[in-house]
Amino acid sequence: MEARAVNIHSDLIARAMINDQGAQFELYKKYSAAMYNTALRITKNTALAEDVLQESFLNAFQSLVFYRGEASFGSWLKRIVINKAITMAKKESKFELVEDEGQLERVEEVEVESLYDVDGVKQAIMELPDGFRTVLSLYLIEGYDHKEIAEIMEITESTSKTQYKRAKEKLRTILKTQMNHG
Amino acid sequence: MDNIEKFIIENKANFDESRDPEKGWDQLNSKLNLRSTNWGVYWKVAAVIFFASTLVLSVLQFQNAPIQVQQVADVNTLEGYYAQQINLKKMEYQALATDSQTAELLTDLEKMDAAYTELSESFFEVNDPEVAEAMMENLRLRIVILNEQIEILRNGADEEQAYHSS
């Protein structure tokens, strides 16, 4: 028997499939904020993230019939958003998925976790180069593993791991600079 | 796991910007409506094609319209996807329904299948995208019907369970 994800919105999904506007609106309200943030972390551009959101929901509602229920609706939608965000960011600007930052400075880990604050770390993530920011966000915030990130970004699993390691180094450097100036 | 990883994972809910969940809906809705209107047109076309199919097919016997392979391939791909969905849904329905309920639903689906066969024969002759769309709508509608019927049976089972446990 095929494994199926438990879908808490199965009724909404069935109604959205037959173009029930009320159901589509409910699904939009439930997922738009989270999906917008996922898109924003990749594109780093609010207007582009809004476009990604529009295109992704349009695409999702049009292809709901392909949704097989193997993953939750949110996971399925998130993959659409991420793919769309990467494609649209690449079209819009020089968006590099694999970064070559040369030799990065080895920065010591902050020993006391409480020294970090959300706003500071959030800002530091947004300062990362595109590829580093994408791989780090996908791994730590969106919860994908390196195998999945490799598929999404069309890179090898080992490149994903290397990029992630380097992204963390870069993040520590930015945070250290922040702390020195703060 | 180092401290920065731990910090981000533990606080990830706070990394989202706040946003009005309804923002952007109006724009999306107008795009969706535009699409629904197009579907409405396709449905009318599908109905006309279905009822006139006998006439169309007899006319086609005297024509030799070329088939664009790319489009046939697209239809075949989509047909495969939908057929897989329909089979999964049928199995799901059968697991919940009585034999007579299953027989009744399968009869209805067979009627739709007959309509589909007529459309597909027409499509492979003329390769008209509107006919292809009508074929796809036929398959989608079967999935919608199955989903609705599955939902009805599930709700019925839940109510029965609630009644017995009360």
What does this protein look like?
The complex is a heterodimer of chains A (182) and B (166). Chain A has 182 residues and is mainly α. Chain A has helices at 10-17, 21-43, 46-62, 73-92, 118-127, 130-141, 146-153, 157-181. In chain A, 36% of the residues are buried. By secondary structure, chain B is an all-alpha fold. Helix content of chain B is 82%, strand content 0%. Chain B is built from six helices and no strands. The chains are: A mainly alpha (182), B mainly alpha (166). Chains A and B meet through α1, α2, α3, α5 and α8 of A and α1, α2, α4 and α6 of B.
So how many helices of chain B?
Answer: 6
Helix content of chain A: 55-70%
Largest interface: A-B, 46 and 40 residues
Fraction in beta strands of chain B: under 5%
Structural class of chain B: mainly alpha
Low-confidence stretches of chain A: 1-6
Mean pLDDT of chain A: 85
Spatial extent as radius of gyration of chain B: 23 Å
Shape of chain B: extended
How many DSSP H or I helices of chain A? 8
Could you tell me the number of beta strands of chain A?
0
> Beta fraction of the residues of chain A?
under 5%
Q: Kindly state the number of beta strands of chain B.
A: 0
Distance between the termini of chain A: 57 Å
Order of helices and strands of chain A: HHHHHHHH
Category from helices, strands and their pairing of chain A: mainly alpha
Poorly predicted segments of chain B: 39-69
Spatial extent as radius of gyration of chain A? 18 Å
Order of helices and strands of chain B: HHHHHH
| Global outline of chain A | elongated
In round numbers, the mean pLDDT of chain B is 76
